[in-house]
Queue: 2 jobs
Job 1
Amino acid sequence: MTNNAFTALMAHMHEAVALSQISGLLGWDQETTMARGSANQRAEWQSALQATIHAKRTDPKVGDWLAAIDPAELDPIEAANIRVISREYERQSRVPTDLAREIARVTSAAQGEWAEARAAGDFAAFQGTLAKVVDLRRQEAAALANGGDLYDALLGEYEPGMQAVELDRLFAGLRRGLVDLREGIGQSSVEIPDIEGRFSQDQQMLIARELADVFGYDWNRGRLDLAVHPFSSGSGDDVRITTRVAEQDPFNCFYSTIHEVGHAVYEQNIDPRHGLTVLGTGASMGVHESQSRIFENQLGRSRAFTGFLFQRMQAVFGDFGIPDAETFYHVVNKLRRGYIRTDADEVQYNLHVLLRYDLERKLIAGTLDVADLQDAWNQRFEQDFGYAVDSVQNGVLQDVHWPVGLIGYFPTYTLGNIYAGELYASLQDDLPTLDSDLAKGDTKEALVWLKEKIHRHGGTYEPRDLIERAVGHAPSEAPLLDYITRKFGDIYQL
Amino acid sequence: MTNNAFTALMAHMHEAVALSQISGLLGWDQETTMARGSANQRAEWQSALQATIHAKRTDPKVGDWLAAIDPAELDPIEAANIRVISREYERQSRVPTDLAREIARVTSAAQGEWAEARAAGDFAAFQGTLAKVVDLRRQEAAALANGGDLYDALLGEYEPGMQAVELDRLFAGLRRGLVDLREGIGQSSVEIPDIEGRFSQDQQMLIARELADVFGYDWNRGRLDLAVHPFSSGSGDDVRITTRVAEQDPFNCFYSTIHEVGHAVYEQNIDPRHGLTVLGTGASMGVHESQSRIFENQLGRSRAFTGFLFQRMQAVFGDFGIPDAETFYHVVNKLRRGYIRTDADEVQYNLHVLLRYDLERKLIAGTLDVADLQDAWNQRFEQDFGYAVDSVQNGVLQDVHWPVGLIGYFPTYTLGNIYAGELYASLQDDLPTLDSDLAKGDTKEALVWLKEKIHRHGGTYEPRDLIERAVGHAPSEAPLLDYITRKFGDIYQL
């Protein structure tokens, strides 16, 4: 029975996975290629496709097949497939169809309302809708939690196996350490110049393509385009990346590219045996972010690699006003006062995330009202950043996540940084030539290591198990905090 | 009952139509955007999507709903929806699943084998596969025909309601007339120069975009890209066109663009009420081709419009060696000795199609063996064109249609030209200012006429009914033959 049921289930999931990947391509097309006037029709397409995928994933036959399979007869990869399929089937089956449809309807409309409220700088105009979104997600959490913790139920969608109690443990020390470091840097007398001048789009894209090469992107199975908000999209043999160009800030283009290449190379490096199965994508949002961040920061913003980038920029742009590689390294890593998470440096980025995490936990716990969210945001921001939010666009209305119902998602950003901290420490131990390689723009050995430890496995292991197998111990925030503290202590002479 | 069943059926078909449109976008992406290494995964996607669409279209619930609907209770648009849905449901239900799967498998592999055989110039290498394709399509035709004519059963997929006996009537006089005209032109002493020089891609695309504007393409709901073989793709609010650029032959780009804009504007002009229903696309392949051909030929290659194009080319390219608009008109319409259907002029194009039609009818009737196909092709070609095929790439291996199983499709090209001939005669009667408008690059009134008579209706009427409503009588080949004979008799002073 196991054999027949397993084969039938895998064939069924093969179609479901293919349809999900198609949905991803529609999203890519929408952000890069589609004409504006096609938006309503595209929404209809996505809605029809999602309904079809949902019907496939919750097909009662899936339950029958799962019941007919004896896990003892499966090899480890087969068992991992069943683990992921079961989890998804149970999650989706627990949420009443009407609730799922209502969430889809409200969050779809909410995105436009949020954009309008943000443009108008008017949180009150969006407050009612956001309260509805939070309420619906709390209902969903209750359905999913089955008596357990509501926030954990939501978190599990993005980071399977993770719990808020564990996040609290990882995040507490990190926050203290980062706030201390930020305050210390504020007292530093080190002055770092800014980059100045104009850097043409063609020349920036020339370097962006080189950077994608350097970090192992496979052009034969993807492409690079421009988008308003850079992203990576796809799995297996079709993984596309986007970047953006600001003429006065080439680092925006370069580091967005490296970040997205981190996501993309992870997907491209997954063992082809997992193609079109539920294991054929990254293990979790946190693990995904660990790859984009280690590419972007630990590797890409290292002294060694910025030395290489400095040479490449000089070759393309000539003298652009930065006198030497060491100054360039400082410029790339300079701390700036700012309000926007996505623009933040390594020191402040996680403070942004932890703020959102604490607030959304309270929203889901019911201990914070949406009516009080803006005040809570502003108060916490001033506490951790040392200055006040100057506008709601730079405050509680800056991210699209909550409006579209992504609650339980934010902490995976910082979790990704914590994983990246662990992986980087191990990588340095295992690869003594890392810095001399990076100084030559050579990431080959580092990529071999990451592919072996992380990429090739796809979703075979639970995220935490995957990291633990890679580094030899349960993940802790210490290596990340240690890395950031040393790096910026050195730059700012603390 | 009718009301509930109709509503449920329309919601079901809404999803099926959306999924079909998504499949179209995947095809567009594959031809314009996708990286080479993504091809296998894309084939898996299409296969999963097609299986899902097929399951939806043949869902027994569709049969139940259709049975529960009383046509007497429907308004004309509702009845038209039911007409098209029933026809498709019956067609798809008649073909055994195993046969459909075998056809998909064989034709999918056959495309690659055909490309290899064509590259090698070796018909014998492909003959076995083609025989298999023909055999499978004959089996399908037998399943569809239900005792009726086999070829009609296949033709009905592309041109609902049309029969071979009617095509024979329309095509017989056309062939005689065109062969006579071609022979007459062969005797003409008129000498027409060729266009010479190099025309840059950027400048060609500048004019191509202008031509798309001139012919009413809505950029807000589509886009123009390059592809190896130009095509138009999509329906409703997302209709994309492609063209190609050959530096020495700007007409290739310009007239490919106008042709594809003809297809695209037809789709863009369909009444939005038909959006995401089975009526929300062109009435048939023949009617579709009538729009691309009337745009390209009757309008685009007219003396009036080429006068406008001549000015635009002079503005962009400067003096390009053609002395005046009348000479330019002759250059655009010059007859050339050639072997390839897609490169053929208005006189010879339909001779190419009629050759294929007659041969494929015999293949399906079982009166011609695939083993004898190459000889039959070469013999007929020499008879109608007056010179011999010089290579199999220029002969029976030139088109992808038969390898991918498209039998019954070719005649819709000539049917489209016949419809275009009828529509052009009516348009001239109704719009006395047509030539003076076209001379200014103004197609507004012509487009209003075509939208009113043809475009807006989508699939509401059977193709022949649609044309008859538009021109006031049953379609005949006479207006097309008359138009071609006059136009080329004038140019070649016969």
Job 2
Amino acid sequence: MFEAKVKAEVLKELVDVLSTLVDETKINANKEGISVRAVDPAHVAMVDLSLERAAFESYNADDQELGLDLDKVKEVLRLAKTGDVIDLKYDEDKNKLILHVGNITRRMALVDTAGMSDTKVPNLNLPAKLTIRVEELRQGIRASENVSDHIALTVSPEGFAMQGEGDTDSVDLKLGKDLLDELESKEQVRSMFPLDYFANMIKAITTAPSVTMYLGNDYPVKIEFQIGGGKGKVKYLLAPRIESD
Amino acid sequence: MFEAKVKAEVLKELVDVLSTLVDETKINANKEGISVRAVDPAHVAMVDLSLERAAFESYNADDQELGLDLDKVKEVLRLAKTGDVIDLKYDEDKNKLILHVGNITRRMALVDTAGMSDTKVPNLNLPAKLTIRVEELRQGIRASENVSDHIALTVSPEGFAMQGEGDTDSVDLKLGKDLLDELESKEQVRSMFPLDYFANMIKAITTAPSVTMYLGNDYPVKIEFQIGGGKGKVKYLLAPRIESD
Amino acid sequence: MFEAKVKAEVLKELVDVLSTLVDETKINANKEGISVRAVDPAHVAMVDLSLERAAFESYNADDQELGLDLDKVKEVLRLAKTGDVIDLKYDEDKNKLILHVGNITRRMALVDTAGMSDTKVPNLNLPAKLTIRVEELRQGIRASENVSDHIALTVSPEGFAMQGEGDTDSVDLKLGKDLLDELESKEQVRSMFPLDYFANMIKAITTAPSVTMYLGNDYPVKIEFQIGGGKGKVKYLLAPRIESD
């Protein structure tokens, strides 16, 4: 059983985040809310997302798996006006999700979840932690995209840096600790990442003003931020690009 | 003789409607105003448009045929700012239409109307009638375009429905009679239509808040709406797509 | 030595003007400010631009040549928000220009200026002069682009005209002397110009409300306008297209 009403903007946050990695995904619903784990086809990045029942206008579900084609959900979201609530109901007999928005009903075939394995979130020990404004990251990404296809993220007790190094030009975003919302770092750590993955994820953040990042030396980065007006959470892991020189 | 001044937005309404069906068209002018009948090349849809002399800022014409290239008129409309009045004058000697907007003069060659036959509007007996908000139709079109290339329109004493049926997904727009401005229907009627024609027509309606539709069983739909601030009228006919099953 | 701070919008004016003609250019800096002369590859148009030190927020330079890739400067300008000041500093050791905007640093390789010859501005005796609003020229360009790829500019004691002549259609922009800010013309002069060059230049004017034009008979047009809030000046020369008939 699955019946829920949710603000279009909350559903959009969820879809925007997931569709940076996958086209189809398995939603796990239970009495407490929904959760999703998705890994991109190249196994470079993972997202672990949860949305409490309190993030919904109304919510009523037993343990239930729903295989969603994210492009179809985007089609329905494009019908919603600001403030619209989308009504979702699982039709068990026909294995369809029935979505209502305004006077429109969309009956959506679900995707077979049999082949979607459950993803385990690795346990990482990342020594540095910082909280940073999304807008600053976006500026750093925009600037770096002009010179390189990868970036180095550095955290030290002094602050945070994002660096893109091209053949002739380079770009630096530097934020001293006074420009960060939070900084925990005993020594300098540095890892390199593919810029497109990092950029797609940060660009998918539509409401959270800041994110918390965890970093190590040539280790994955973990990015955490809130969705659903604080009633949901995203953890995003991105594998490092190991420098060979 | 043909001399007229018309608000750019009124001329735009006329051009937007006609250009859903044809690139070139014959305008018939007389003392009372102008009228146009156009049929698309595939003979699937027809428009019958009239604009009274009162829709113009000034108007002075004898019986006159003008063959217009609608793309050229759109070029002139793009020069107009909000509130601009376009000055039109037929130059008989050179067979050109002279258009003024701001400090610009465009001398436009007219299209030969000799080969443009006069279109007869068929007399149809359509038992159901309803008046519906354009915005609702637009939502239904947007939603249907995601799943199908044709739609079924149904009218019954209970209300109106637009349905798109895809291979796996379906879309319904349902409006009970309380959500319609007007409904006259003794029994249920239903016809199917090509979605692209229907969509292009409804999207071309820029000022009328609602349209009146006449429907039958596997019969054309007639759509009527006002242009020119109520001083003009469009009747649009679209042939049904007969279901073969 | 070259160190300067400049409002992003002022740097953008300079880049917009120059990039209508060239991709790379040589900036000449000295104690008084900067100047640039650029000729397009086909030698049809020339720009002579200067920006006083007073146009900068701060300025400190010896005689210095800087070879700029304009696309790279545009990349940095896209990072700037309204009101942002861009910090420029020449790193002599590495032959790079270091640009700061917000918390971003871009280290930009400079272009070799050895092959860039110094351009001489020809001395022209152009008998007619007028000052005209840029918005009127833009309208005339927009209208002319629909019918032709060249335009005739005419000045007479009565006023100014821009004419585009196509195979079937023609466009005129006519401004009597009362619609011009200034007019000096003893007799009628007329020259034809390639519309794309003229259009690109006029479209690159982002802040000046009007330009001063100098015209002759089958002679180049000289266009002058201000940049940098009146602390800079652009002179633009465009060769005529000689009519052969």
